[in-house]
Amino acid sequence: MNIKLGKYNQLEVVKKVDFGIYLNGGDDGEILLPTRYVPDGCKPGDMLNVFIYLDNEERLIATTLQPLAQVDEFACLEVAWVNEYGAFLDWGLMKDLFVPFREQKLKMQKGRSYVVHVHVDEESYRIMASAKVERYLSKEMPSYAIGQELEVMVWQSTDLGFKVIVDNQFSGMLYRNEVFQPLKPGMKLQAFVKQIREDGKLDMSLHKGGPKDVKSFSDTLLDYIKENDGYTPFNDKSDAEEIYATFGVSKKVFKKAVGDLYKKRLIVLETNGIRLA
User: Fold this and answer.
1) Contact between 56 and 48 (Cβ < 8 Å)
2) pLDDT in tens, 119-128
3) 177: left (phi over 0), alpha (psi -120 to 50) or beta
4) Residue 215's pLDDT is what?
């Protein structure tokens, strides 16, 4: 059995001691789970799901605490303190997560949060983090389907839009002219694949789009007009952010739905709004 450092492991309780219990770490020997983390009624022979990391003396140690990120994951973490060697991030465990200066894009500051990748350093066998996110994104060609829904994490704001990490492995982009809500690094959202580019990067959208999306919102818009005495001041000249704040859709989807309802002669377009036919 090989221990997965920086991840959860199912381990058997071997024995109880005054300061905790020892777990069977296979080739890595017995691993301590300190008393404060031992579940009530735990006894030898029980199987526990524990997170394995290194203590201050670089020994394997177990915890039942849930870290904010595991090895091979990206996360947005706050700097707890800084010294002459680098920054230390709060990742929910007793021992903070180290980011050496060589793995920082800009010098990290205490109290600020940064998107990082958590990994095991090959030379030192320590768990550490890197703010040089691009290095850890997959270079393979994604095999997703257009329109597929995936989790994304906002990574960086640019003039073009927001760089996102897609499905914890690929580089993606949410274009600024299609985003109608405030976004900041670390936010996790559900998004849809718009396009897979030749370089393997993904164009993403917060709205699925397509005929089904328009049809669904057409019904919503019609109900909204009915519920507001057969009139709404919104039209194709309305501000995109106001449309999103009210209906939760882009202006593009809104305009398509208006066109759909107009073709069915269910609404009348007026100078300052839309009225029920």
Assistant:
1) no
2) 999 888 999 9
3) alpha
4) 62
